[in-house]
Amino acid sequence: MKLTAHISADGQIQGLVAIPKGELNAGLTVTPGAYVCEIEAHGLKGETAEPDELTKLLETHVVEFTPARGKLVPRRK
């Protein structure tokens, strides 16, 4: 599964798009000061993502961002 994140400059995830590999291409429109990157090693299993899995990622993770690469990491409390 391909997971793409719309993130702010500080790594806060503003939106996620989960797409089965090879089936469809999709993207997110970027607003000024925001970024879009593909998330690797996201831990989601199977070809589809359940909404509660994506919600949990949104609530518990941020993205460590370098240009064109993102890494999902647990949030600091």
For the biggest β-sheet, the strand order reads 2-1-3-5-4
Number of helices: 1
Q: Could you give the count of β-strands? A: 5
Q: Main β-sheet, in a few words?
A: 5 strands, mixed
What is the percent of helical residues?
A: 10-25%
What is the approximate shape? globular
Computed structural class = mainly beta
Q: Count structural domains.
A: 1
- Secondary-structure element order, N to C: EEEHEE
* Amount of beta strand: 35-45%
Average pLDDT score = 81
Distance between the termini: 29 Å
| Whole-angstrom Rg | 12 Å
* Uncertain residue segments: none
Q: Mind explaining what this structure looks like?
A:
By secondary structure, the chain is mostly beta strands. The protein has one domain (2-74). It is built from one helix and five strands, in the order E-E-E-H-E-E. A five-stranded mixed beta sheet has the order 2-1-3-5-4. Strand 1 (2-8) and strand 2 form a beta hairpin. The mean pLDDT is 81.
SSE topology:
Blueprint: E1 2-8, E2 13-19, E3 34-40, H1 51-60, E4 61-66, E5 69-74
Parallel strand pairs: 3-5
Antiparallel strand pairs: 1-2, 1-3, 4-5
Short description:
The chain has one helix at 51-60, and strands at 2-8, 13-19, 34-40, 61-66, 69-74.
